[in-house]
Amino acid sequence: MNTFFYEVVSLDGDYANLRRTDIETEELKLVARALLPQEITEGTKLKYEWLQYEIID
């Protein structure tokens, strides 16, 4: 399974806009906040692996 790294760019109600940080891209991914760790804020860095998001330093 692949591993991807993201940063939370913005929070919009029940959704979060994520930007990949492991590749250069300006595209944002819209993800339901229910799928993300509850503690996220703008600027939080995440790792996506095995269908789960995890906060990283």
Descriptive overview:
The termini are far apart. The relative contact order is 0.32. 0% of the residues lie in helices and 54% in strands. With 57 residues, the protein is mostly beta strands. It has strands at residues 3-12, 15-20, 28-32, 45-49, 52-56. The protein has a 5-stranded antiparallel beta sheet with strand order 3-2-1-4-5, with no helix packed on it. The chain is built from no helices and 5 strands. The radius of gyration is 10 Å and the shape is globular.
What gap, in angstroms, lies between the N and C termini?
22 Å
Mean of residue pLDDT values: 97
Detail the poorly predicted runs: none
What is the helix tally? 0
> Mind telling me the C-alpha Rg?
10 Å
Sheet-strand content, in percent, reads over 45%
Helix content: under 10%
Main pleated sheet:
5 strands, antiparallel
Taken in chain order, the helices and strands follow as EEEEE
Structural class of the secondary structure composition?
Answer: mainly beta
The beta-strand count equals: 5
In what order do the strands lie side by side in the largest sheet? 3-2-1-4-5
Shape: globular
